[in-house]
């Protein structure tokens, strides 16, 4: 996995040992997302998934101790199996955008662009993410979280690796 960060964007590239159609489905179908999305150790529940521009993937994550967080993707561009663009945010149970439970200055919304490239039967996924219209304080906090976010996505993508291996 390669990672780069500038002040406003986190870029992670990872190669998965699976065809890109399958990797794309793992990002866009609830029965797949249930098996890998989110931090390690969290239990994901899908409230709804409407895969269309303007549609929402609304989900909750629960820790083993019972702490529950809600999140959502609002889809922009969807070009199967090549590209997926969505805005990610924390939410409440009704899918209203809310502040992150861990910081009042984490950006409200993160725009993510995922590209899926087929390479010898494998998939090279590149994820570019950055805050949407952040304040100076939010942008600085996002930049300060780069290493933590890289580690978090490393764990999440590790779960996707394990899940894809089970499907092979």
Strand content: 35-45%
Unreliable segments of 5+ consecutive residues: none
Q: What is the general shape?
A: globular
Q: Which CATH architecture is right?
A: 2-Layer Sandwich
Termini Cα gap: 21 Å
What is the CATH T-level topology? Alpha-D-Glucose-1,6-Bisphosphate, Chain A, domain 4
| CATH homologous superfamily classification | START domain
CATH class designation: Alpha Beta
Tell me what you see in this structure.
This protein has 168 residues and is an alpha+beta fold. It has one domain: Alpha-D-Glucose-1,6-Bisphosphate, Chain A, domain 4 (2-Layer Sandwich), CATH 3.30.530. It has helices at 20-28, 30-33, 136-144, 146-167; strands at 2-6, 9-16, 43-49, 56-62, 68-79, 83-91, 97-98, 110-119, 122-131. Strands 1, 2, 3, 4, 5, 6, 7, 8 and 9 form a 9-stranded antiparallel beta sheet that branches. A hairpin with a 5-residue loop joins strand 4 (56-62) and strand 5.
Keywords:
single chain; 168 residues; 4 helices; 26% helix; globular
What would you say about this model in short?
The chain is built from 4 helices and 9 strands; from the N terminus they run E-E-H-H-E-E-E-E-E-E-E-H-H. It is an alpha+beta fold and 168 residues long.
Write the layout of secondary structure elements.
Blueprint: E1 2-6, E2 9-16, H1 20-28, H2 30-33, E3 43-49, E4 56-62, E5 68-79, E6 83-91, E7 97-98, E8 110-119, E9 122-131, H3 136-144, H4 146-167
Antiparallel strand pairs: 1-2, 2-9, 3-4, 4-5, 5-6, 6-7, 6-8, 8-9
């Amino acid at each position: 996995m390669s990672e780069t960060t500038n002040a406003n964007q986190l870029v992670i590239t990872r190669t998965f040992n699976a065809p890109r159609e399958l990797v794309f489905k793992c990002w866009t179908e609830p029965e797949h997302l249930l098996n890998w999305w989110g931090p390690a150790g969290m239990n994901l529940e899908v409230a709804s998934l409407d895969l269309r521009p303007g549609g929402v993937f609304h989900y909750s994550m629960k820790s083993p101790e019972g702490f529950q967080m809600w999140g959502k993707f609002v889809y922009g561009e969807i070009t199967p199996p090549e590209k997926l663009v969505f805005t990610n945010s924390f939410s409440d149970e009704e899918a209203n955008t809310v502040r992150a439970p861990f910081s009042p200055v984490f950006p409200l919304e993160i725009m993510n662009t995922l590209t899926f490239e087929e390479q010898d039967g494998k998939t090279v996924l590149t994820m570019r993410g950055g805050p949407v219209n952040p304040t100076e304080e939010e942008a600085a906090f996002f930049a300060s979280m780069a290493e933590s976010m890289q580690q978090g996505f490393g764990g999440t993508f590790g779960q996707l690796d394990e899940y894809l291996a089970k499907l092979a």
